[in-house]
Design a protein that fits this description.
The protein is an alpha+beta fold. The chain has helices at 4-11, 13-16, 93-96, 179-216, 221-239, 242-247, 254-281, 288-306, 314-337, 343-365, 372-508, 515-550, 562-580, 603-626, 660-663, 683-695; strands spanning 18-19, 26-28, 36-37, 42-46, 63-64, 83-91, 100-106, 108-114, 117-120, 138-140, 147-156, 172-178, 558-560, 587-591, 599-601, 635-643, 646-653, 698-704, 708-716. Strands 2, 4, 5, 6, 8, 9 and 11 form a seven-stranded mixed sheet that branches. The chain has a five-stranded mixed sheet with strand order 1-3-12-7-10. A hairpin with a 2-residue loop joins strand 16 and strand 17. Helix 5 (221-239) packs antiparallel against helix 11 (372-508), helix 7 packs parallel to helix 9 (314-337) and helix 8 runs antiparallel to helix 9. The longest helix is centred in the middle third of the chain and has 137 residues, at 372-508. The radius of gyration is 64 Å and the shape is elongated.
C-alpha cells in the first residue's frame, strides 16, 4: 500500500506538478505548492563532448525532447548510450530573490551543470548498480542572471531482461522548489519516519509482552508466533526510510540497500508468522493452505520485484495481502462457526483492517490527493487493527487463565487450611496415642525382659539337656561298640576257666590221666586266650579312636602342599595294606595340578584325613576283588585342582560303592559298613570334623553301589 504514492508520483507527474511552458528560454514565473516540473524546453544530442556544458554553446540545432516522458516514448538514441540534455530558462523577478532548490530524480548516471558549473556528480552506486536514483537537491543561487542554462550529461540505465516495466519509467524528473517547500517535504518525511518508529516501538512492546505470556504459559503457542510476528514487523518498520519508500528513491549506498532488503525480508516473515499465529489460536493445525500461502507469497514477492518499475508493481503486493487476509478470515469464520470464545474479537480486528483498506483504495481510485503524513496514517490501522485483535484475544485468554488460576489458588488455600486443621487434629491424636503406646511399650518391655530371662534359663536347660542327650547317645554308642568285645572276653574267660578246671581234674587222676585229652584242653585254652587278646585289643582301639575324636588339635597352621601330602599318604596306605596281604595289587592314578597353591592348615591332621580316605578306598577295591568278579582291576586315584578361591582334592575308587541310605549316615560317629571287629566307625567322622571345623572346608561323598565311590575335599586357598 505504501508504494501507491510512488506510482502516482511517477506515472501522473504531469498532473501533480505544474509544467513550465515551452519557449526559446523558458520563463519560470511562479511555483505551485508541490513544485514546478521542468518538462518542456529541453534539447538533446547523442554523443559526449564536455564543451556542451558551456552556457554559450549554441544548441539550436539539437532536437527537442521531454525527458519526463516514459522511457519507451523516447527516441532510440536516448534509450542507449551517452547523450546530453540542455534547458534554457529565465526566472521571473519574483523568483530571482528567493532561495531555490532543484530536485532531480534520474534513472541512470547523470552529471548536472548549472551555467557551466558542475553542481551534481554521479552518486556512489550501491553493489555495482547502474541506476542512480538518489535525490540530490541542487541549490539555484539567488540574484543569478535572468537567463540560465541547465546541462545534463546522461547515461541511461540498461535494465536486466527479467526486470519488467522499466520502459514505463521516465529517465529524468527535475522539480524546482523553494527552500520552505523542501523543508516542508523533509518535515513530512520526518513525521512519516516518526510514525514508522512509533509503530516499531508498539510492535516491539507487543513482542516483549507476548514473549512473556509464552514464557509463563508455553502451552499457548500462539503467543510465540505472535511475538515473532511483532518482532519481525518492528524490525521491518525500523528499516523503513520515508524518503526511499514514499518517493521512489532507491538508496545510493550499501547501508541503504541493506536496509531496503531487510525491510522486505522482515515484512514477509512477519506476514507468515501472523497467519501462523492464528492456527493454534483456534486449535487448528497448519496444513496445505498454509504451505500454499507461503509458496504463493514467495512467488508474488518475486513477481513484485521483477515488476518493480511497472504499473503492475502493486498488484502482487495487494494479492499477497489479500491471500493473507483471506486465510485469516477463513480461520476466523471456522472459529465463529464452532462458537469458540474470543473469535469475535479477532473478527472485529480483521473487519476493521479490511474497511480501512477499502477506504484507502477508494480515496486513491477517486484521485483524492492526500498529504504524505495523512496517507501513511491511513496505512497504520490496516496493520494495527488485525494485530491488536489477536493481541487482545491472547491477553484476554491469558487473563482468563490467570483468573482461573486465582480461583484454583483460592481453592488450594482453602484445602490447605482444611488439611492443616486435619493435620493438627492428627498430631494431637498421635501425641495421645504415643503416650498410650509408650506406656504399653514400657509395660511390654518389662514383660519381654522377664520372658527373655525365662527364655535364657530355658535355653540353658535345653542346652544342658542336649548335652546330656548327646552324651547319652555317645555313651550308648560306646557301650554298644565295647559290649561285643567285652562279651567275647567274658565268654572266652568263662570257657577258659572251665577248661582249666577240667585240665586239673584230668591231671589229678595221675597215671590214669588221658594225655590226648590234656593236649586238646591246652589247645582250646590257648585258642581262648588268643580270642581274649584279640577282642581286648579291639576294645582298646575303640577307646583310642574315641580319644582321638574328642581331642582338639593343638598343631599350628602352616602353608601346606596338598600335592606332596596326597602322594605321600596314598603310597603309605597302599604299602600298609600290601604288608598285610601280599597278594593284593591295585592301579594307582594321580592327577596333580601343577599350579596348585598352598593352603593354610595343620599338616598331620590333613594327612590323617587323606590316610583315612585312602585306607577306605583300598578296603573297598579289595572287597570287590575278593568277590571274584571276572576282569576286575582294582583302581584308586587322587586328583587336585583349583576351583575359584578353593583347592579341591578328589579321592576315587572303583570298589563296592555305597547305596544312598548309607551315604546319608557315612559321617556319623560309630557308623561303619565294615564287618564287626574290622572298623570302629570313627575314622570318617573324625575326618569330617577336621575338615569342616578345623579348616573351614567341606567334605562330600558321591557313590553308586557296585560302581565305586568318590570323596571330594575342598579347602580355602
Amino acid at each position: 500500500m505504501k508504494h501507491l504514492l510512488l506510482l502516482l508520483a511517477l506515472f501522473t507527474a504531469s498532473g501533480c506538478l505544474a509544467q513550465a511552458p515551452a519557449t526559446a528560454a523558458t520563463l519560470l514565473s511562479g511555483l505551485p505548492p508541490a513544485g514546478l516540473l521542468l518538462s518542456q524546453g529541453w534539447r538533446y544530442h547523442a554523443g559526449d563532448d564536455p564543451a556542451w556544458a558551456r552556457p554559450d554553446f549554441d544548441d539550436r540545432r539539437w532536437a527537442p525532447l521531454d525527458p519526463t516522458r516514459r522511457r519507451r516514448a523516447l527516441p532510440p538514441a536516448a534509450q542507449a548510450g551517452v547523450y546530453w540534455l540542455r534547458l534554457r530558462f529565465r526566472l521571473a523577478d519574483s523568483l530571482r530573490q528567493r532561495a531555490l532548490l532543484l530536485d532531480v530524480w534520474r534513472l541512470g548516471t547523470a552529471a548536472l551543470y548549472l551555467n557551466g558549473r558542475l553542481v551534481s556528480a554521479p552518486a556512489v552506486r550501491a553493489w555495482g548498480l547502474t541506476m542512480d536514483l538518489a535525490m540530490a537537491p541542487i541549490e539555484v543561487p539567488a540574484n543569478a542572471p535572468a537567463e540560465q542554462v541547465l546541462a545534463v550529461r546522461f547515461a541511461p540505465w540498461q535494465p536486466a531482461p527479467l526486470l519488467l516495466g522499466a520502459d514505463w519509467l521516465p529517465q529524468l524528473l527535475p522539480v524546482l522548489r523553494t527552500l520552505p517547500q523542501r523543508r516542508l517535504l523533509e518535515a513530512e518525511w520526518a513525521d512519516t519516519n516518526m510514525i514508522y518508529y512509533i509503530m516499531a516501538g508498539v510492535f516491539l512492546l507487543l513482542a516483549l509482552l507476548h514473549s512473556t505470556f509464552y514464557h509463563y504459559n508455553p502451552a499457548q503457542e500462539a503467543n510465540r508466533y505472535f511475538a515473532r510476528y511483532a518482532l519481525a514487523l518492528a524490525l521491518g518498520f525500523a528499516c523503513i526510510d520515508s524518503a526511499v519508500d514514499t518517493l521512489g528513491v532507491l538508496p545510493a549506498n550499501n547501508w541503504g540497500m541493506l536496509r531496503w532488503i531487510a525491510e522486505y525480508i522482515f515484512l514477509f516473515l512477519s506476514a507468515m508468522w501472523m497467519v501462523l499465529a492464528v492456527y493454534p489460536l483456534f486449535g487448528f493445525r497448519p496444513g496445505r493452505p498454509y504451505v500454499a500461502l507461503v509458496v504463493s507469497g514467495v512467488l508474488l514477492l518475486l513477481v513484485q520485484e521483477l515488476t518493480l518499475f511497472s504499473p503492475l508493481y502493486t498488484y502482487p503486493y495487494l494479492a499477497f495481502g489479500g491471500l493473507m487476509l483471506a486465510e485469516q478470515l477463513r480461520l476466523t469464520a471456522l472459529a465463529l462457526r464452532q462458537q469458540q470464545r474470543g473469535a469475535p474479537i479477532i473478527a472485529c480486528g480483521l473487519v476493521g483492517g479490511l474497511i480501512t483498506v477499502v477506504i484507502y483504495l477508494a480515496l486513491h481510485i477517486l484521485g483524492v490527493a492526500l498529504p504524505l503524513l495523512t496517507d501513511n496514517l491511513l496505512l497504520a490501522p490496516i496493520i494495527m487493527l488485525p494485530a491488536l485483535g489477536i493481541s487482545l484475544f491472547l491477553a484476554r485468554d491469558f487473563a482468563l487463565d490467570a483468573e482461573m488460576l486465582q480461583v484454583k489458588l483460592g481453592e488450594v488455600e482453602q484445602l490447605s487450611a482444611q488439611t492443616l486443621a486435619q493435620e493438627q487434629d492428627k498430631q494431637a491424636l498421635l501425641a495421645s496415642q504415643n503416650e498410650t503406646l509408650e506406656h504399653q511399650v514400657t509395660q511390654r518391655t518389662g514383660e519381654l525382659q522377664r520372658s527373655l530371662t525365662d527364655l535364657r534359663t530355658t535355653q540353658n536347660q535345653l542346652i544342658q539337656k542336649e548335652k546330656m542327650a548327646s552324651l547319652g547317645e555317645l555313651t550308648a554308642g560306646i557301650a554298644h561298640e565295647i559290649q561285643n568285645p567285652l562279651n567275647f572276653v567274658n565268654n572266652f574267660s568263662e570257657v577258659s576257666t572251665e577248661l582249666v578246671s577240667e585240665l586239673r581234674e584230668e591231671q589229678a587222676k595221675g597215671a590214669a590221666a588221658d594225655p590226648v585229652l590234656q593236649e586238646e584242653l591246652l589247645a582250646d585254652l590257648g585258642q581262648n586266650l588268643t580270642k581274649i587278646s584279640q577282642h581286648g585289643q579291639r576294645a582298646a582301639g575303640i577307646v583310642r579312636g574315641m580319644l582321638e575324636h574328642s581331642r582338639a588339635s593343638t598343631g599350628e597352621r602352616a602353608p601346606t602342599a596338598l600335592n606332596a601330602l596326597a602322594d605321600e599318604y596314598l603310597r603309605l596306605a597302599y604299602h600298609g595294606l600290601r604288608a598285610k596281604d601280599k597278594r593284593f595289587n591295585a592301579t594307582l592314578e594321580t592327577d596333580f595340578a601343577p599350579d596348585l597353591p598352598l593352603v593354610q592348615g595343620v599338616g598331620p591332621d590333613l594327612g590323617r584325613v587323606l590316610l583315612n580316605l585312602f585306607t577306605n578306598a583300598f578296603y573297598a577295591v579289595q572287597q570287590r576283588q575278593q568277590a571274584g568278579e571276572a576282569g576286575y582291576q582294582p583302581t584308586v586315584g587322587v586328583a587336585t585342582r583349583r576351583v575359584g578361591n578353593t583347592v579341591e582334592v578328589r579321592v576315587h575308587d572303583n570298589g563296592t560303592g555305597m547305596p544312598e541310605a548309607v551315604q546319608a549316615k557315612i559321617f556319623q560317629p560309630f557308623f561303619t559298613t565294615k564287618p564287626t571287629g574290622e572298623g570302629t566307625g570313627l575314622g570318617l567322622s573324625l575326618s569330617y570334623d577336621i575338615v569342616t571345623k578345623g579348616h573351614g572346608g567341606t567334605l562330600t561323598v558321591q557313590s553308586q553301589a557296585g560302581q565305586g565311590t568318590e570323596f571330594t575335599l575342598r579347602l580355602p586357598a
